[in-house]
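Input (DUF4192 domain-containing protein):
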Amino acid sequence: MNAHDDHTGPHGTSPSGGALPVRTTGFTEEPKITLRSSAELADALPYMLGFHPTDSVVLLALHGDRGRFGGRIRLGIPSSPREWAPTAEQLAECLIEGCERHGSRPDGIVVFLYQDPAEGESGRRVMERLRPFAQKLRTACGALDVPVYEALCLSDGRFWSYVCPDSDCCPPDGTALAPPGTSVMAAAAAYAGIHVRGSLRDMEARLRPRTAPATVAEQERALDTASAALVHRILNTTARQGVRDDTIRLAQRLIDRLADHPPLADQDASDSRDDALITHEEAAELIVGLQDRRTRDRAAEWMEGREADHALRLWRALARRCVGVYGEHAAAPLSLAGWVAWSTADEPSARVALGLALEADPEYAFARLLHQACNEQLDPETLRECLRGEREARTKAEARRPSARRAAGRPGARAVRRGLRARVGRPGTTATGTSSTRPGTATPGTRPTRPGPTRPADAAGPGPGPGTRVQRRPGLQDPSRTSGGGPGDGLSGTGCADGNDWGSAR
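Output:
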């Protein structure tokens, strides 16, 4: 038995030396998959997350003598080493407290650090650069009396252990990862019909704004025009209902148009074709219209069956059109994309979309509530029933008298938010402190000072007048917004932390 085994048990085992049985979502009779090495641990994680993490730190909880996998949390690796210590403390606290809330404090933790080498950098150099972060994570977990059994760095197709001191077991140049599809986890996942959706970077690319200069300029001009035409009407109590109805009718036309063109096998080609089917003016009108939260809640009713598939394509396309100073506007279509993905049982895609929504606007209450509900493994059927009820009530009211439209629309948005808050509580209260969001982004709690376009964040109340540009100072919240919590409330509100299965077997 080498030194690594003396301290932590064999790779992929609990301290008692037993192999780690893993329960994975999607298997019909919850079979146990035994992982016996660090290589198998590294290979298993994408199947549990649903994608290959990139530029990510992942903490995975272990329970019991045999190391049953439980809760997990993922966060983008902070770009500044100054942020590593508070990030490590917050991650450890969030994971352990989350497990405790669900009745089972973890007995140990496995840490994964994923990062591709920069240009001219080797995988080994990445491992050495991230070593202090790994040590801070081990210290933060140990301070809460939960040991880190294994800490792995994965880069450039190889992995290194920060725990094993034996060069025969864990060579300095790392160990090559198994070829895709050749591990026991890959075989079990293939048998169960589970697939990995690609890398996190690829999933995010489908939702991020386009960057071609000509496209950005044309789309930004269209958004300027749409904002000038619609924002003052959304803020006007007598005119906003007309904007809401026009927005929903336009969304329905675009969904029908996308339905006439089935998605292509190649995702990039399919997204480009979807973009070409929607004009800059149509995208701009819909993006601005969706800034009204009641319109957005009505749009959330496209959540089931084939209709949901086409709506998801539309919300993705709109998120890609939120360019330039309109980046914050992406919170609405990204939240809708996350909701539809969650409603249709695609939780990995839901977490990615909701994380990006919170990156665009950390104060966006709808995304915060959905993100926490998804991470808490709540059943989306509760919200679906609420939305079905609102649609049915509105349809009956409109059939009785046209004047009932306004009365029927008013409680809908409130009911959606009340239903979510009743299930998940106030978002963003699982951990305190400040954490980095994604590499290269601002720390939560600070807002860009660059003036941006007006957003009718709460059309039900007073807001800035037509043409007003809102400038936010760091740490201040727009007083016209109603939100489930402000920046700095914790990881659940930053838009970057993904956690789920607190204490449950996977």
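The first helix runs from residue 3 to 8.
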